[in-house]
């Protein structure tokens, strides 16, 4: 017998099923799965199919063939285009639950499906000399891909809203040393949209703690499989721990087979992923190869081109807003702009420009306010800074004071996306790790801004900037730029 859980996964289903043969033939209680992941996956499939059907119907309706044969050819080509796109989504595993609602990999797979299926249709049309494939290849199929992405985005935002309310979460059993488990708990709490809720922990034997970051310790490392099989956890997340080697991890994977419990493993390396991470099997042993980061070449030239073109377009579009803000700032009798020396790429200094949001003599008042510093590390920040003007408070709340930095981007001293531009006194306090932030141009926005801005600790700010430096890609820039909109309008961590 099994008991049905609710849609949000707050009551996981428990079912009695036979254990895998390697487990000795006993029967045990394991989770049969919560309903929301299956419902979410079905919703995405239905949305994608609907997007494809709508694109095909619209493509057929907009075309006006003059003969019956033309109508037949049009319908046949449209159906072929739709089927090819659906097949492409299946081939690239765009419906794989492991990529749905997680990061930018979902977007890349849809793009791969659209590009591959359109190319296949184009080649078939070229080989058979069918001219009617052109509008499908260049218009209808990309349009269907765009509709698929819109549908997936809407589904993801709905899921984020549910997770913000504490629903649709995956209960996680964290395994590892006390420090590693604590780090995992803090990360999952900072990123609730990922959907992990650490509700239990297993730490090495002899550890005398009852809880880690308020998460109860349920047992030692030998008890992991038994605890995971009780049905209260959907994910077992293994972090580094003394005495936890490949053999024990392999045995755990075997014992979790058929239970519906997902196994996630922290490789214990630096926060490196994306194009720098490669898998190289040597005699059956999978090794993670880390290629060296490059900060020159075609990709960086493309980034600079996007920066300058984007800055020029944004300046042209926002010119009336810039003028209005300048007049508002000057209403207190001071200058509209504030210029300050910052440290850029490779330690070169530049004059960063912003709208003035503080009183004219703000710099001279820092020493008097040092005891009230809320900033972390070498940063000076105050939640209720008396130097901020009334107009400046509004500008800082929505990051409007940073709009003039578009001129810095246009001049090449900054980028649209990158690490936070530091002051010289901050750089003087940098360690070797933090200095790696200077390998790339500072940005108007970055991981630090979309992850909490001033609410971040110094170590968290450094970690996020280093993650950007180590894993930079155009896709990461696009993701950060998109998330910046929500961070700005939500005013998260702005003061």
Structure commentary:
By secondary structure, the chain is an alpha/beta fold. It has 15 helices and 14 strands. It has helices spanning 35-62, 68-91, 105-128, 134-164, 178-190, 224-228, 246-256, 298-329, 366-369, 390-397, 405-411, 424-428, 447-450, 458-471, 474-490, and strands at 14-18, 27-31, 170-175, 196-202, 211-212, 215-219, 235-238, 262-265, 277-282, 285-290, 337-343, 349-355, 415-417, 443-445. A six-stranded mixed sheet has the order 5-6-4-3-7-8. A two-stranded antiparallel ribbon has the order 1-2. A two-stranded antiparallel sheet has the order 9-10. Helix 1 (35-62) runs antiparallel to helix 4 (134-164) and helix 8 runs antiparallel to helix 11. The protein starts with 13 loop residues before the first strand and ends in a 5-residue tail after the last helix. 29% of the residues are buried. Mean pLDDT is 83; it is low at 1-33.
Layout of helices and strands, plus pairs?
Layout: E1 14-18, E2 27-31, H1 35-62, H2 68-91, H3 105-128, H4 134-164, E3 170-175, H5 178-190, E4 196-202, E5 211-212, E6 215-219, H6 224-228, E7 235-238, H7 246-256, E8 262-265, E9 277-282, E10 285-290, H8 298-329, E11 337-343, E12 349-355, H9 366-369, H10 390-397, H11 405-411, E13 415-417, H12 424-428, E14 443-445, H13 447-450, H14 458-471, H15 474-490
Parallel strand pairs: 3-4, 3-7, 4-6, 7-8, 13-14
Antiparallel strand pairs: 1-2, 5-6, 9-10, 11-12
Helix pairs in contact: 1-2, 1-4, 2-3, 3-4, 8-11
């Amino acid at each position: 017998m099994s008991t049905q859980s609710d849609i949000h996964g707050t009551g996981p289903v428990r079912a009695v099923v036979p254990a895998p043969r390697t487990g000795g033939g006993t029967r045990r209680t394991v989770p049969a799965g919560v309903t929301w992941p299956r419902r979410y996956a079905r919703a995405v499939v239905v949305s994608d199919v609907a997007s494809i059907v709508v694109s095909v119907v619209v493509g057929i309706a907009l075309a006006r063939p003059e003969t019956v044969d033309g109508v037949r050819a049009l319908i046949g080509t449209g159906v072929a285009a739709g089927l090819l796109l659906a097949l492409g989504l299946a081939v690239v595993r765009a419906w794989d639950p492991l990529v749905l609602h997680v990061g930018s990999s979902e977007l890349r797979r849809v793009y791969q499906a659209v590009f591959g299926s359109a190319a296949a249709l184009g080649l078939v049309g070229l080989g058979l000399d069918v001219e009617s494939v052109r509008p499908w290849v260049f218009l209808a199929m990309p349009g269907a891909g765009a509709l698929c992405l819109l549908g997936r985005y809407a589904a993801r935002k709905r899921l984020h809203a549910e997770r913000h309310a504490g629903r649709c979460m995956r209960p996680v059993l964290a395994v590892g040393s006390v420090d590693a488990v604590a780090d995992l708990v803090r990360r999952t709490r900072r990123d609730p949209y990922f959907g992990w809720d650490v509700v239990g922990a297993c730490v090495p034997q002899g550890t005398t703690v009852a809880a880690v970051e308020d998460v109860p310790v349920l047992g030692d490392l030998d008890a992991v499989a038994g605890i995971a099989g009780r049905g209260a956890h959907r994910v077992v997340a293994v972090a580094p721990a003394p005495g936890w080697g490949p053999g024990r991890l392999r045995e755990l994977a075997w014992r979790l087979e058929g239970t519906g419990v997902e196994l996630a493993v922290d490789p214990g390396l630096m926060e490196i992923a994306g194009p720098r991470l490669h898998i190289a099997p040597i005699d059956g042993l999978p090794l993670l190869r880390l290629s060296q980061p490059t900060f020159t070449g075609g990709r960086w030239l493309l980034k600079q081109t996007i920066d300058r073109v984007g800055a020029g377009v944004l300046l042209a579009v926002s010119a009336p807003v810039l003028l209005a803000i300048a007049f508002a700032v000057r209403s207190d009798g001071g200058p509209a702009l504030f210029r300050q020396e910052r440290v850029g790429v490779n330690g070169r200094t530049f004059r960063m420009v912003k709208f003035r949001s503080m009183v004219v003599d703000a710099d001279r008042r820092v020493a008097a306010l040092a005891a009230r510093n809320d900033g972390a590390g070498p940063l000076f920040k105050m939640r209720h800074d008396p130097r901020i003007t009334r107009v400046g408070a509004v500008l800082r709340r929505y990051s409007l004071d940073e709009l003039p930095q578009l001129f810095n981007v246009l001049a090449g001293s900054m980028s649209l996306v990158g690490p936070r531009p530091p002051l010289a006194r901050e750089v003087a306090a940098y360690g070797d790790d933090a200095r790696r932030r200077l390998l790339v141009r500072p940005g108007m926005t970055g991981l630090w801004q979309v992850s909490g801005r001033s609410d971040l600790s110094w170590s968290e700010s450094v970690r996020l900037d280093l993650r950007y430096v180590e894993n930079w890609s155009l896709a990461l820039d696009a993701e950060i730029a998109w998330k910046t909109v929500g961070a700005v309008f939500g005013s998260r961590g702005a003061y």
